[in-house]
Amino acid sequence: MRLLQLSDLHVRCPGNPLAGRVETLPYLERAVTFVERMLPEPDVIIVTGDVADQMETAEYELARGMLRRLRRPCFALPGNHDSRRGMRELLPFCLREPLREDCLAYVVEQLPLRLVMLDSVIPGHGDGRLGGDQLAWLDSVLAAAPSSPSLLAVHHPPFETGIGFMDRIGLNDRAALGEVVARHGQVVGIVAGHVHRTIVGSLAGRVALTAPSVAHQIPLDLSPDGPDTFVLEPPGFLLHEWDGTSLRSHHGYLGDFGAWHRFDEGTDG
Question: Considering the chain, what is the average pLDDT of its residues?
Answer without folding.
Answer: 96
